[in-house]
Specification:
Blueprint (H helix, E strand, L loop, with lengths): L13 E9 L13 H14 L2 E6 L7 H12 L4 E10 L6 E7 L1 H4 E2 L4 E2 H9 L17 H13 L4 E5 L8 H4 L2 H8 L2 H6 E5 L4 H10 L6 E3 L15 E2 L2 E2 L3 E4 L4 H9 L1 H4 E2 L9 E8 L7 E3 L15 H11 L11 H12 L4 E7 L5 E7 L3
Helix pairs in contact: 1-2, 7-9, 12-13
GO molecular function: ATP hydrolysis activity
Pfam families: AAA_23
InterPro entries: P-loop_NTPase (IPR027417), Pol/histidinol_Pase-like (IPR016195), Rad50/SbcC_AAA (IPR038729)
Length: about 375
């Protein structure tokens, strides 16, 4: 029997819990003493336990392609989408500055040609550097040089973006840079275009300083578990006893959708999962008539019916009105035409079934049979 695959986007764009700072067994700092043949299952099971559906693998100065392939494949079976990344330490500040780089897997790794541009990039970044896998080792690039290097790759069709890691801690953006340096970075077009997130922002006074330094135009604040063992994979960090989470609104599992969400941060990235603010039609199903067996699914937010003239947009709307017993106003000039649309679609004995979700998440089913 084939396993039924759950589609998280069956009703369009949806909110998914994300972890943008994941380490794995390929990282020197990750502690795993279990059986090797159980590692992948345990890792993905922990992500699922924490309800993570979007994650970025960001090991220190390293990308293990083989491990990532296996994790990504197993994760997809659980409707978890993993992006390739790296926690790169650039040679700025007293301790280096940690940058979480998120790569577009489809362009940085080309399977049919066996081209791994991520490790090509890392080899160049650590050319002549000893022990690059150590979290305290810095690459040969400054942040300014890294921005230019990633822009070169972008211009050659390989996109990426940066999240500054644990910004208030050692090797963090704020800890290692002073206000004057941050102000200067804020004037850098490549910084604005490439650095789309700050991880683990905690202090209100720091937020106020960032607003001043960056002219009130801040990257989005996001979270990540920064896990060092299986038990901490995907686990929400806490502040004042409360979980700090990141929910991202996606309509598909791909890099373009992820980056677009970061660019539209006010609408597509939240600390808490937004709840529907109104009742909505979840789906419409037809039995009999011209759309016999068809089912249309809707989102709790805005839905669009797109089609050329005469393709059936008005027919769908009028059929919904009919099912809900909404009368056509007497002053309407096209009453007969609207009724004919419904009759033509459902025919005699055709049924429409509406599944409706109210604001309290109660589900109702409304059925109506055409009595033409």
């Amino acid at each position: 029997m084939l396993r039924k695959v759950y589609n998280p986007f069956k009703n369009g764009s949806t909110w998914l819990k994300a972890d943008f700072h994941l380490h794995t067994n390929a990282d020197k700092e990750f502690d795993y003493n279990g059986k090797n043949d159980k590692y992948l299952d345990k890792y993905i099971s922990q992500l699922k336990k924490q309800n993570i559906q979007v994650g970025v693998i960001t090991n220190h100065n390293k990308f293990d392609l083989n491990e990532f392939k296996h994790l990504r494949k197993k994760a997809r079976k659980q409707n978890i989408f993993l992006f390739p990344g790296v926690e790169l330490s650039v040679k700025d500040g007293a301790n280096g500055v940690h940058c979480l780089i998120v790569f577009d897997y489809d362009t940085w790794y080309i399977n049919r040609k066996k081209h791994d541009y991520i490790n090509q990039f890392l080899s160049s970044a650590f050319e002549g550097v000893m022990d690059p896998g150590n979290e305290n080792t810095t690459c040969k690039y400054s942040l300014d040089e890294l921005l230019k290097k990633l822009d070169d790759y972008r211009n050659n069709g390989r996109d990426s973006f940066i999240i500054m890691a644990h910004v208030e801690q050692k090797s963090g953006f704020i800890k290692e840079y002073g206000g004057g340096r941050i102000e200067k970075l804020g004037e850098n077009e490549l910084f604005r275009k490439t650095v789309l997130g700050f991880q683990k922002v905690r202090s209100l006074d720091i937020i106020q300083k960032l607003k001043q330094w960056l002219n009130n135009d801040l990257p989005v604040f996001i979270e990540g578990s920064d896990c060092k063992n299986i038990d901490s994979v995907g686990k929400s960090p806490k502040q004042n006893g409360e979980d700090k989470n990141t929910y991202i609104k996606l309509g598909d599992f791909n890099f373009s959708a992820l980056k677009f969400a970061f660019l539209d941060k006010e609408n597509k990235i939240k600390v808490n999962k937004p709840k529907p603010q109104n009742a909505y039609i979840e789906s419409i199903k037809f039995e009999g008539g011209k759309l016999d067996g068809e089912k249309l699914k809707f989102n709790s937010n805005m839905n669009n019916l797109i089609g050329i003239r005469g393709s059936g947009k008005s027919t769908i709307l009028e059929t919904i009105r009919y099912a809900l017993d909404i009368e056509i106003p007497n002053e309407a000039r096209d009453i007969e035409y609207k009724n004919e649309l419904v009759e033509n679609l459902l025919g005699s004995g055709g049924k429409i079934i509406l599944k409706i979700n109210d604001i309290h998440n109660n589900i109702y089913k409304i059925e109506k049979i055409s009595n033409v």
